[in-house]
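Subject: Re: docking follow-up (NAP)

Dear J.,

Thanks for your patience while I sorted out the input files. As discussed at Tuesday's group meeting, I've set up the holo structure prediction with NAP included as the bound ligand rather than trying to dock it afterwards. The sequence and the ligand SMILES I used are pasted below, so you can double-check that they match what you have on your end before we go further.
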Amino acid sequence: MKNTLLITGGAGYLGQHLISHAGSWRTHATYFQTPPPEGLQTTWHHCDLRDGGRVKELITSLHPDVIIHTACSNRSLEEIEAIVPAARNLAQGAKESPCRLIHLSSDLVFDGEDAPYDEKSRPKPINDYGQAKAEAEHSVAALFPKAAIVRTSLMYGMDPVDHQSRWLLDGLNKGQTIQLFTDEIRCPIWIHTLTECLLELTRMDFSGMLNIAGPDPLTRWEFGLGILALHNRTPTERIVPSTRAEAGLIRPRDLTLNIEKVKHILNIPLLSLREVHQRHYSRDSTSVKPTVESTS
Ligand SMILES: NC(=O)c1ccc[n+]([C@@H]2O[C@H](COP(=O)([O-])OP(=O)(O)OC[C@H]3O[C@@H](n4cnc5c(N)ncnc54)[C@H](OP(=O)(O)O)[C@@H]3O)[C@@H](O)[C@H]2O)c1
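The structure tokens for the complex came back this morning:
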């Protein structure tokens, strides 16, 4: 008998990957405004996660063993405003059920002035999305201390192409000028690595904060060129280096996450963009995909 995994944001980027690779779980997934993508083996449930009654009803009826809460990112103001109520409703539901909860957070809870950030670093957000993610972390930890809270960084992948890479590739295809910052640092993570880590975490009794990010801090410029190389595309003169100051933007400068803790807890190789590229273009290209399936 398979155990039950509930994935929120099943139609989102991370959600789709989790559904695809959660082979030995019986999965249920929520969607809200995006119709469920075809071809994913799961049971879909329409749910506005801001609706506490609906969240409670869903958890009570499904009795999940684990919830992975991926929903509520930064695609719109409405979505940002849903971050805190959704997190509270899920933490309350997981506590009452009870079941395990893995809550997805972001490196953008920091201001970028004190990197590298470990799990004890205190949030200091400088934009609305970071503020909401920080408040959600706080609410989840206060309501349900047994929850795992995972801070991650930019996700990238090829099947399908992630939001950031799609923006870059579309811009290149249209001949647009694209500025990539040389003074903004993140730790991008291969979507299959993150998926594999989260599924491994479902099998463990882990509580508290955990950074899961790529091993190499990269500027947006380095990351962009690496993504083009991964897609076997040659940069044009319209892909230009720039800085946040030149663009007149206030954004976190360096969001490097310390990943020593996850390296000790999980036995998953955290691939760099260079390693992903090497594996993708080697004969053994399947090795960039998760090899470990949930056995729960
Ligand atoms: N993508 C990154 O690079 C990145 C970096 C750091 C952290 N994160 C975090 O990782 C998680 C997953 O990110 P992602 O890029 O996979 O997200 P995504 O593709 O933008 O998907 C977000 C999902 O949230 C759902 N959603 C929004 N409002 C909702 C509501 N009121 N009720 C129910 N569902 C709602 C959306 O559902 P519908 O489309 O059906 O409306 C969508 O499926 C997020 O928590 C994000 O903050 C992402």
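A couple of observations from a first look. The pocket of NAP is lined by residues 9, 11-15, 30-34, 47-50, 70-73, 75, 79, 82, 86, 104, 106, 152-155 (CB under 6 Å). Confidence is low (pLDDT under 50) at residues 290-296.

Let me know if you'd like me to rerun anything.

Best regards,
T.
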